[in-house]
Amino acid sequence: MLQLDHVEVCYGAFKALKDVSMTVGQGELVVLLGANGAGKTTLFNAISGLIKPSAGDITVEGQSLTGAKPSAVVSAGVVQCPEGRKLFPQMSVMQNLLLGAYVHRRDKAGIQQKLREVLELFPILEDKKDQPAGSLSGGQQQMVAIGRALMGRPRLLLLDEPSLGLAPLVVKQVFETISRINRQGTSVLLAEQNAFAALKIAHRAYVIEGGRLVMEGDQAAMLGNEDVRKAYIGA
Protein backbone atom coordinates (compact mmCIF):
# COMPACT_ATOMS: atom_id res chain seq x y z
CA MET A 1 0.00 0.00 0.00
CA LEU A 2 2.61 2.55 1.13
CA GLN A 3 6.36 2.47 0.67
CA LEU A 4 8.93 5.08 1.71
CA ASP A 5 12.45 4.68 0.37
CA HIS A 6 15.27 6.71 1.99
CA VAL A 7 13.04 9.76 2.52
CA GLU A 8 14.63 12.92 3.91
CA VAL A 9 13.06 16.28 4.75
CA CYS A 10 15.02 19.44 5.49
CA TYR A 11 13.92 22.75 6.97
CA GLY A 12 16.79 24.92 5.85
CA ALA A 13 19.93 23.39 7.33
CA PHE A 14 17.95 21.26 9.79
CA LYS A 15 17.29 17.69 8.67
CA ALA A 16 13.92 16.72 10.17
CA LEU A 17 13.72 13.26 8.55
CA LYS A 18 16.83 11.18 7.95
CA ASP A 19 16.88 8.25 5.53
CA VAL A 20 13.42 6.95 6.44
CA SER A 21 12.37 3.68 4.78
CA MET A 22 9.16 1.94 5.83
CA THR A 23 6.08 0.15 4.51
CA VAL A 24 2.40 -0.22 5.29
CA GLY A 25 0.83 -3.30 3.74
CA GLN A 26 -2.67 -3.65 2.35
CA GLY A 27 -5.08 -3.97 5.28
CA GLU A 28 -2.41 -3.32 7.92
CA LEU A 29 -2.66 -1.09 10.97
CA VAL A 30 0.84 0.23 11.61
CA VAL A 31 1.80 2.45 14.54
CA LEU A 32 4.50 5.12 14.48
CA LEU A 33 5.74 5.75 18.02
CA GLY A 34 7.79 8.74 19.04
CA ALA A 35 8.04 11.65 21.44
CA ASN A 36 7.12 15.24 20.59
CA GLY A 37 9.50 16.56 17.96
CA ALA A 38 10.61 13.11 16.82
CA GLY A 39 9.40 13.68 13.28
CA LYS A 40 5.99 11.96 13.20
CA THR A 41 4.03 14.93 11.85
CA THR A 42 6.79 15.82 9.37
CA LEU A 43 6.62 12.27 8.05
CA PHE A 44 2.84 12.47 7.69
CA ASN A 45 3.05 15.83 5.95
CA ALA A 46 5.61 14.46 3.50
CA ILE A 47 3.33 11.54 2.65
CA SER A 48 0.35 13.91 2.32
CA GLY A 49 2.12 16.28 -0.05
CA LEU A 50 2.08 19.19 2.40
CA ILE A 51 5.88 19.34 2.35
CA LYS A 52 8.26 18.09 -0.34
CA PRO A 53 10.98 15.60 0.57
CA SER A 54 14.52 16.71 -0.19
CA ALA A 55 15.46 13.11 -1.02
CA GLY A 56 13.90 9.69 -1.40
CA ASP A 57 10.68 8.35 -2.87
CA ILE A 58 7.13 7.86 -1.61
CA THR A 59 4.91 5.39 -3.47
CA VAL A 60 1.32 4.32 -2.92
CA GLU A 61 0.16 1.13 -4.61
CA GLY A 62 3.18 1.41 -6.90
CA GLN A 63 2.48 5.02 -7.90
CA SER A 64 5.10 7.60 -6.99
CA LEU A 65 3.60 10.51 -5.07
CA THR A 66 6.87 12.23 -4.23
CA GLY A 67 6.26 15.97 -4.55
CA ALA A 68 2.61 15.49 -5.60
CA LYS A 69 0.02 18.11 -4.63
CA PRO A 70 -2.11 17.28 -1.57
CA SER A 71 -5.24 17.03 -3.73
CA ALA A 72 -3.50 14.43 -5.92
CA VAL A 73 -2.48 12.47 -2.83
CA VAL A 74 -6.09 12.43 -1.59
CA SER A 75 -7.30 11.40 -5.04
CA ALA A 76 -4.79 8.53 -4.89
CA GLY A 77 -6.50 7.30 -1.72
CA VAL A 78 -4.29 8.72 1.06
CA VAL A 79 -6.04 10.99 3.59
CA GLN A 80 -4.59 12.54 6.75
CA CYS A 81 -6.49 13.29 9.94
CA PRO A 82 -4.21 15.93 11.47
CA GLU A 83 -3.03 16.38 15.04
CA GLY A 84 -5.27 18.78 16.96
CA ARG A 85 -8.27 17.96 14.72
CA LYS A 86 -8.09 21.25 12.75
CA LEU A 87 -11.86 21.62 12.43
CA PHE A 88 -13.65 24.77 11.30
CA PRO A 89 -15.24 25.59 14.68
CA GLN A 90 -17.92 28.03 13.49
CA MET A 91 -19.12 25.70 10.73
CA SER A 92 -21.58 22.92 11.47
CA VAL A 93 -20.61 19.32 11.99
CA MET A 94 -22.24 18.47 8.65
CA GLN A 95 -20.33 21.21 6.81
CA ASN A 96 -17.05 19.97 8.27
CA LEU A 97 -17.82 16.41 7.20
CA LEU A 98 -18.76 17.41 3.67
CA LEU A 99 -15.51 19.36 3.25
CA GLY A 100 -13.72 16.04 3.50
CA ALA A 101 -15.45 14.91 0.31
CA TYR A 102 -14.30 17.91 -1.76
CA VAL A 103 -12.17 15.90 -4.21
CA HIS A 104 -15.24 13.74 -4.90
CA ARG A 105 -17.66 16.69 -5.09
CA ARG A 106 -19.10 15.64 -8.46
CA ASP A 107 -20.15 12.25 -7.12
CA LYS A 108 -23.24 13.32 -5.18
CA ALA A 109 -24.57 9.78 -4.70
CA GLY A 110 -21.18 8.54 -3.52
CA ILE A 111 -20.92 11.39 -1.02
CA GLN A 112 -24.33 10.56 0.47
CA GLN A 113 -23.40 6.88 0.72
CA LYS A 114 -20.15 7.69 2.49
CA LEU A 115 -21.94 10.13 4.78
CA ARG A 116 -24.34 7.38 5.84
CA GLU A 117 -21.38 5.14 6.61
CA VAL A 118 -19.69 7.83 8.72
CA LEU A 119 -22.87 8.56 10.69
CA GLU A 120 -23.31 4.84 11.27
CA LEU A 121 -19.77 4.72 12.66
CA PHE A 122 -20.37 7.81 14.83
CA PRO A 123 -24.15 7.83 15.60
CA ILE A 124 -23.89 10.78 17.98
CA LEU A 125 -22.89 13.04 15.07
CA GLU A 126 -26.34 12.55 13.54
CA ASP A 127 -27.85 14.39 16.51
CA LYS A 128 -25.10 17.04 16.45
CA LYS A 129 -24.95 17.58 12.67
CA ASP A 130 -26.36 21.13 12.73
CA GLN A 131 -24.33 22.32 15.72
CA PRO A 132 -21.09 24.29 15.34
CA ALA A 133 -18.19 21.84 15.44
CA GLY A 134 -16.46 24.01 18.03
CA SER A 135 -19.31 23.49 20.50
CA LEU A 136 -18.71 19.74 20.75
CA SER A 137 -16.67 17.93 23.39
CA GLY A 138 -13.09 17.00 22.58
CA GLY A 139 -14.02 13.39 21.91
CA GLN A 140 -16.89 14.38 19.62
CA GLN A 141 -14.63 16.79 17.74
CA GLN A 142 -12.18 13.93 17.19
CA MET A 143 -15.06 11.89 15.76
CA VAL A 144 -15.80 14.73 13.34
CA ALA A 145 -12.13 14.93 12.35
CA ILE A 146 -11.91 11.19 11.67
CA GLY A 147 -15.29 11.28 9.92
CA ARG A 148 -14.14 14.16 7.71
CA ALA A 149 -11.05 12.15 6.73
CA LEU A 150 -13.20 9.12 5.93
CA MET A 151 -15.34 11.27 3.63
CA GLY A 152 -12.25 11.44 1.39
CA ARG A 153 -12.65 7.65 0.86
CA PRO A 154 -9.15 6.70 1.97
CA ARG A 155 -7.59 3.36 1.20
CA LEU A 156 -4.80 4.52 3.52
CA LEU A 157 -5.77 6.64 6.53
CA LEU A 158 -3.09 8.67 8.34
CA LEU A 159 -4.07 9.43 11.94
CA ASP A 160 -1.83 11.90 13.78
CA GLU A 161 -2.17 11.72 17.59
CA PRO A 162 -5.95 11.05 17.69
CA SER A 163 -5.92 10.46 21.46
CA LEU A 164 -4.27 13.82 22.28
CA GLY A 165 -6.06 15.64 25.11
CA LEU A 166 -8.86 13.10 25.48
CA ALA A 167 -10.13 11.43 28.65
CA PRO A 168 -9.13 7.76 29.11
CA LEU A 169 -12.64 6.43 28.44
CA VAL A 170 -12.86 8.46 25.24
CA VAL A 171 -9.39 7.28 24.19
CA LYS A 172 -10.61 3.69 24.53
CA GLN A 173 -13.62 4.45 22.30
CA VAL A 174 -11.45 6.20 19.71
CA PHE A 175 -9.04 3.26 19.46
CA GLU A 176 -11.93 0.80 19.20
CA THR A 177 -13.25 2.85 16.29
CA ILE A 178 -9.83 2.96 14.59
CA SER A 179 -9.60 -0.81 14.89
CA ARG A 180 -13.07 -1.15 13.37
CA ILE A 181 -12.14 1.11 10.44
CA ASN A 182 -9.11 -1.09 9.81
CA ARG A 183 -11.11 -4.32 10.02
CA GLN A 184 -13.49 -2.91 7.42
CA GLY A 185 -10.59 -2.78 4.96
CA THR A 186 -8.85 0.58 5.34
CA SER A 187 -5.09 0.49 5.87
CA VAL A 188 -4.03 2.75 8.76
CA LEU A 189 -0.81 4.49 9.74
CA LEU A 190 -1.27 5.76 13.28
CA ALA A 191 1.15 8.20 14.96
CA GLU A 192 0.81 8.04 18.73
CA GLN A 193 2.45 8.77 22.05
CA ASN A 194 -0.09 6.56 23.84
CA ALA A 195 2.00 3.52 22.97
CA PHE A 196 0.20 0.83 24.95
CA ALA A 197 -3.27 1.62 23.58
CA ALA A 198 -1.91 1.95 20.04
CA LEU A 199 0.10 -1.27 20.13
CA LYS A 200 -2.89 -3.23 21.41
CA ILE A 201 -4.68 -2.67 18.08
CA ALA A 202 -1.64 -2.65 15.78
CA HIS A 203 -0.17 -5.30 13.51
CA ARG A 204 3.29 -3.72 13.45
CA ALA A 205 5.08 -0.64 14.76
CA TYR A 206 8.02 1.64 14.07
CA VAL A 207 9.82 3.88 16.56
CA ILE A 208 11.10 7.24 15.35
CA GLU A 209 13.67 9.31 17.26
CA GLY A 210 15.35 12.47 16.02
CA GLY A 211 13.88 12.02 12.55
CA ARG A 212 15.28 8.52 12.13
CA LEU A 213 13.56 5.13 12.43
CA VAL A 214 15.38 3.29 15.20
CA MET A 215 13.25 0.20 15.75
CA GLU A 216 10.50 -1.87 14.15
CA GLY A 217 8.62 -5.06 14.94
CA ASP A 218 5.28 -6.78 15.14
CA GLN A 219 2.80 -6.19 17.96
CA ALA A 220 4.10 -8.94 20.26
CA ALA A 221 7.75 -7.99 19.78
CA MET A 222 7.15 -4.32 20.48
CA LEU A 223 4.94 -4.91 23.51
CA GLY A 224 7.59 -7.24 24.91
CA ASN A 225 10.59 -5.04 24.08
CA GLU A 226 12.11 -3.68 27.28
CA ASP A 227 13.40 -0.48 25.64
CA VAL A 228 9.95 0.27 24.19
CA ARG A 229 8.29 -0.43 27.52
CA LYS A 230 10.65 1.87 29.41
CA ALA A 231 10.47 4.70 26.88
CA TYR A 232 6.82 4.64 25.85
CA ILE A 233 4.75 2.32 28.03
CA GLY A 234 6.33 2.24 31.48
CA ALA A 235 8.07 -0.82 32.91
UniProtKB/TrEMBL annotation:
Molecular-function GO terms, alphabetical: ATP binding
* Signal peptide range: none
Supply the alphabetized keyword list: Amino-acid transport, ATP-binding, Nucleotide-binding, Transport
Say which domain of life the source belongs to.
Bacteria
The residues covered by the ABC transporter domain are: 2-235
Fetch the InterPro entries from UniProt.
AAA+_ATPase, ABC_transporter-like_ATP-bd, ABC_transporter-like_CS, BCAA_Transport_ATP-bd_LivF, P-loop_NTPase
Question: What is stated as this protein's family in its record?
Answer: Belongs to the ABC transporter superfamily.
Q: Which PANTHER family match?
A: HIGH-AFFINITY BRANCHED-CHAIN AMINO ACID TRANSPORT ATP-BINDING PROTEIN LIVF (PTHR43820:SF4)
Q: What is this protein called?
A: ABC transporter ATP-binding protein
In its UniProt entry, the species of origin is given as Allohahella marinimesophila
